[in-house]
Design goal:
Elements: E1 3-9, E2 12-17, H1 20-43, H2 50-55, H3 61-77, E3 82-87, H4 93-107, E4 110-116, H5 130-145, H6 154-172, E5 173-181, H7 183-189, E6 202-210, H8 226-240, E7 245-251, H9 259-275, E8 279-284, H10 296-299, E9 302-306, H11 318-325, H12 334-344, H13 348-365, H14 372-387, H15 392-404, H16 412-419, E10 423-427, E11 430-433, H17 435-438
Parallel strand pairs: 3-8, 3-9, 4-7, 7-8
Antiparallel strand pairs: 1-2, 5-6, 10-11
Helix pairs in contact: 1-13, 3-4, 5-6, 5-8, 6-8, 12-13, 12-14, 13-14
Length: 447
């Protein structure tokens, strides 16, 4: 123990302890500060699973109300309807689909199956039949999990068990042994043995028949999807006999790179699901709305487009409500909140990313609050990410948009800028350069 001077006063000896209280106080302050920032970072995690965020109560449902409630309303009124959710990266499509699933389950009249196809198979090898295969697997598992088979007789249970096996073979493929005659031996023996048959000499080889949900980089064998429809209908009929509608919710299809890849995957599968009276909700790449995708409304009963929210302060405060709901105001001043909202361009994921990165910058500097310099550093970092990889042609397009508000959504280079989030769409006629990118946009090269 460190001790101070010994002081005599009125025949008493006083011993002063120095250093310890100050050390304890400083350590406690550091610990409390760390916990404050940790809690802030936990609630503002842009990569946290959407389902976990919803279950933790961190989602502002009013923000998504007009989207997920519209999805559910159409599914209620038209049980076999097919709906598409379209929007840029980080716009909230997954959250809207999960909230729709949750509301359908609460109503108790629909079996909803949320399927993130990007987590189940390689999107680069995805083709027709893959969505049906994944739907069938989820359908069979839900049937068993909910105990629907408990009141069936033995014959029906056996039929459904066989149907489930057919679905698994369709999804994952099969292996079979094939007898291969040895032609060399056959040629030698054909004249020497009476009654000789060529197939008597040979060997077995094992051949694989790929399924519709292959692991990465394994090619898919194209097959007619009608081969699995009968097995699916066995489960569907058993569920619909319980007065339940079925809705398949496909997430992850928005990661398909082009509209033609999207259509090549969904066309046959969605048509088969419609025939089986199964409703569909699906996320789609933003590019389906433009060029080839202009006919998208002819293929779906309802198309829900999720645009970026206006970051302007007078636009209703939706962006601020997100930060407030997640406890961001504990470390953010009002002026910093405005700065982050504007810098995000109204993209939900960018809003949360900026708030979190600004918090990290403040923590590194030892600050107790997140200040404007920390927010500006985060915005610049986000802008650099959008700037990376841009060529002279793309920079020229962005400058024309910035100065002239001119943007042709039918042009391929423009669609790429829109899909990658460098250009934001606020309405059918309002396109703007992402503000985090705009502040770093270099002058275009002179011709």
């Amino acid at each position: 123990m460190k001790r101070g001077k010994i002081v005599t006063h009125y025949n008493c000896i006083l011993v002063f302890e120095v250093g310890m209280p100050a050390t304890i106080s400083k350590s406690m302050q550091a610990s409390q500060r760390r916990e404050r920032f940790r809690e802030y970072m936990r609630k503002l995690n842009p990569t946290a699973p959407a389902r976990l965020t919803i279950d933790s109560g961190l989602v502002v449902e009013d923000l998504h109300g007009s989207q997920f409630k519209a999805l559910v309303a159409r599914a209620d009124l038209e049980p076999a309807s097919q709906q598409l959710v379209v929007g840029g990266t980080g716009s909230g499509k997954t959250t809207a689909l999960l909230l729709a699933e949750k509301l359908l389950e609460q109503q108790g009249q629909t079996l909803s199956l949320y399927i993130d196809i990007s987590s189940e198979t390689d999107l680069t090898s995805l083709n027709s039949g893959a969505l049906l295969a994944s739907f069938g697997l989820h359908l069979a598992r839900a049937f068993s999990r909910k105990g629907f088979e408990d009141d069936l007789d033995d014959a029906d249970k056996t039929a459904l068990k066989n149907a489930g096996s057919d679905i698994e073979r369709f999804a994952f493929g099969t292996r079979k042994s094939v007898w291969v005659p040895d032609k060399t031996v056959a040629d030698l023996m054909v004249d020497r043995l009476p009654g000789f048959r060529a197939e008597m000499f040979g060997h077995y080889v094992t051949e694989g028949v790929p399924g519709k949900l292959p692991p990465p980089v394994v090619p898919v064998l194209l097959r007619d999807i009608q081969v699995i429809q009968k097995s699916l209908e066995a489960f569907i009929a058993a569920i619909q006999a319980r007065s339940l509608d079925i809705v398949a919710i496909f997430d992850g299809l928005d990661r398909l790179p082009t509209p033609d890849r999207f259509w090549s995957v969904v066309d046959q599968d969605f048509r088969a699901l419609r025939q089986m009276r199964v409703g569909v909700m699906a996320a789609a790449p933003q590019s389906v709305l433009y060029g080839q995708g202009r006919a998208v409304s002819e293929h779906f009963d309802r198309v829900h487009q999720i645009r970026a929210l206006s970051p302007d302060p007078e636009a209703g405060g939706y962006l601020k409500s997100i930060l407030s709901h997640r406890g961001g105001m504990d470390l953010l001043g009002q002026d910093v909140v405005d700065l982050i909202c504007v810098g995000s361009g109204g993209v939900l994921r960018d809003l949360i990313t900026l708030a979190r990165d600004a918090g990290e910058a403040a923590y590194i500097e030892g600050a107790e609050q997140i200040l404007a310099p920390h927010a500006n550093a985060a915005i610049n970092q986000l802008g650099e990410g959008y700037l990376r990889g841009l060529g002279p042609e793309q920079i020229g397009i962005l400058w024309r948009l910035k100065k002239e508000r001119s943007f042709d959504v039918a042009a391929s280079p423009n669609i790429e800028l829109l899909v990658t989030g460098r250009v934001l769409e606020y309405s059918a006629t309002d396109f703007r350069v992402h503000p985090a990118l705009e502040r770093l946009l270099p002058e275009p090269e002179s011709k």
